[in-house]
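not sure who needs this but someone in the group chat was asking about Haloacid dehalogenase-like hydrolase from Microbulbifer variabilis so here u go. i didnt clean anything up, its just raw.
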Amino acid sequence: MAFSQRKLTVFCLLLLINIFFSSTGVSADLPSWNNTSTKSAIVSFVKKVTQEGSSDFVPPELRIAVFDNDGTLWAEKPAYVQLLFAIDEIKRLAPEHPKWQKEQPFASILKEDFHSLLTLGKADRLKIISTTQTGMTDTEFNRVVNSWLTDAKNPLTGKPYRNMVYQPMHELLEYLRANGFKTYISSGGGVDFIRALSMSFYGIPPEQVIGSRFKLRYEDDDGHPQIITTDKLDFVNDGVGKAIGISQVIGLRPIFVAGNSDGDLQMLEWSTSGKGPRFGMLIHHTDSKREWSYDSGSKVGHLDKALKAAKLYGWTVVDMTKDWAVVFPQSKVTTPEKEISETPVEDGG
């Protein structure tokens, strides 16, 4: 049966589009990425490791991609999302704990003393997080987290956290999986918190999440065995801990790894120093209009040593302003819906 003139025109147009993307190395599967050298580098790497017969071919079982979470897959300002969740939980649970009105760091939260909250040390942050996570099963904690995510919004943008996921990175995850990669998260945040949302937010199942964790204990309550999270810290998945955590959980060096801060430095160094083709990526927050501009001067997402190392090791640095046509889901390409800030935002700022 002969083609109609209209069908023939459409066929030729699709053929030309296919030829264009094949010849330029630009992928139609990353629509929120601008056609820059960064996008071309990603597509070129994926093409060479998936092309059978190529000297750089990597079998699917070795195509491991690992991503940091905060500041890499979703926004981390004004503070890490898990800390914001924990602060809201303290407020919710406060009526059951009247002593918190005078006990720090809870008193600062209940008085909404933001200045004091911004100066919290690691011990106080850990106390807040452990208080809102421990003494329950993972099922109970998942329910609490997902209930919170239903209504919670970023305090600076007013957007639900689901809409604070970076659209280009969401597309990158899908693009890698479509090319036979297995995608993991390696975060300094709590593993149970991220597992509660990783599948619905990123399409990453909980068993492919690595994070900081508390020790667990086994309880058998009248024939109902349970695993309970204790308040004893077991492992901090940050800095050198990220490389160790990946080795412990996956047992392989990733061939594709992405982060955004100095906390990801050792993960990037270790992963990209393996044999064969490797791809290291750093997200550089340069966009003060559509997101925030920050790096070495920020307590959240501090980026200094890793940025310098990127030049030494040849990692790809994503310039958010230049490389991303869209930052958040449903954002406009040229004119942001809302100008969030034009100056660097510090921890809590």
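also The CA atoms of residues 196 and 209 lie 10 Å apart. if thats useful
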